[in-house]
Design brief:
single chain, about 350 residues, mainly alpha, 16 helices, about 80% helix, globular
Length: about 350
């Protein structure tokens, strides 16, 4: 759902007569909604299990998306999109906690990497399908996907066995999780990585449509290619981290790659499309490649019994950054240029790498 809304940005702008900054605020509503509920969802998952949390949250999210499709004004649209984000946040902690319970450390990087491909796969589907639908039908389509996810969660998720070895330290309680210095460093570094990801994923379609003359469908197809690369890198990065026994070393390398490739794409903004589009596909893919590694590291720092709270905490930090970045990026672009906006975004993963440097696996 979060990845589908940027695909609809041109249609939303036309339907509601929105400025670039208002588009940024609308994207921001998703992140504000998730920020408010991620940690409570995670704590609830630790107490009542993943199955109920995931099904309830996705069911409410589906209803809010249908309402957003029928919203008449910008205010009601903003409120319903925020509610969808708040309810849909349930899946972050619940599904991650389920994988944490089911797999031992030697397989967890790959498992959570596969789990994290849900975002690029959803983005790929959205980029191919949504431009062909009307705005109202597009929101209904997203709602149907959420409802299907809720039904699948009820049918497929079950209480894990204790077959997996107790290979991570269990903290004494929620307070211990929230006081974990290493977890806070991870949250801060991941939030800095997110800036480049949001700059590309949230605004690439608008940039290609407005500045390079691509149609909505053509620009969305480029974003779909970004999702394919991102999915492959998330799975590959997870498997790599399992083989070397470290989540943090690959995480730092991906951060450097994200910064470098986005800087190169920024330098090529005026280049022929045959140069620009592959540059953005690679930069976008790398900007999304780190999520599974960060997700796994956060869960392992906290331990199984508090993994839901830890994942909620980590995702809350990302949501806080996500609440700031879209309107801030849009304001920078409106005041200066796309080149300045993307160039500044490319610096943030490097700052994230520096923040993560003291951490050891």
């Amino acid at each position: 759902m979060i990845i589908g809304l940027p695909v609809l940005a041109p249609a939303l702008r036309d339907a509601h007569s929105l400025s670039l900054v208002e588009i940024g605020v609308l994207l921001d509503a998703l992140w504000i909604g998730t920020l408010l509920t991620l940690l409570p969802w995670g704590v609830l998952a630790d107490r009542v299990g993943e199955r109920l949390v995931l099904a309830t949250g996705l069911g409410v999210c589906a209803a809010a998306l249908v309402g957003a499709g029928y919203a008449e004004g910008f205010g009601s649209l903003l409120l319903l999109v925020g509610l969808a984000g708040a309810a849909g946040a349930s899946v972050n902690a619940a599904s991650g906690r389920a994988v944490m319970q089911w797999f031992p450390a030697s397989e967890r990087g790959l498992a959570l990497g596969v789990r994290q491909t849900a975002i690029p796969v959803g983005g790929f589907i959205s980029a191919l399908v949504l431009p062909a639908l009307g705005l109202r039908s597009a929101f209904v389509f997203l709602a149907v996907l959420c409802a299907a996810g809720a039904a699948f969660g009820l049918a497929a998720i079950h209480d894990p066995s204790r077959a997996a070895a107790d290979d991570v330290l269990e903290p004494r309680g929620l307070g211990a999780t929230l006081r974990a210095h290493r977890l806070w460093l991870l949250c801060g570094g991941s939030s800095l990585y997110l800036v480049a990801q949001l700059a590309v994923v949230s605004f690439l379609v608008l940039f290609l449509h407005d500045e390079r003359g691509l149609s909505d469908g053509e620009a969305a197809a480029v974003l779909a290619a970004v999702q394919v690369v991102a999915a492959a890198l998330r799975i590959g990065g997870g498997r790599w981290s399992d083989r070397i026994g470290s989540r943090l070393r690959p995480l730092r390398i991906v951060g450097i790659g994200s910064a470098v490739t986005l800087a190169l794409a920024t330098a090529a903004l005026s280049a022929p499309l045959v140069v620009l589009l592959p540059a953005f596909v690679l930069a976008g893919g790398l900007s999304m490649a780190w999520n599974g590694l960060s997700f796994t590291a956060a869960a392992e720092i906290a331990g199984r019994t508090r993994s839901g709270a830890a994942l909620g905490m980590q995702q809350s930090a990302l949501a806080a950054a996500g609440a700031i970045v879209p309107p801030a990026f849009a304001a920078v672009v409106a005041a200066t240029s796309w080149r300045v906006g993307f160039g500044i975004a490319a610096l943030f993963p490097l700052a994230g790498v520096q923040l993560l440097r003291p951490l050891r696996s």
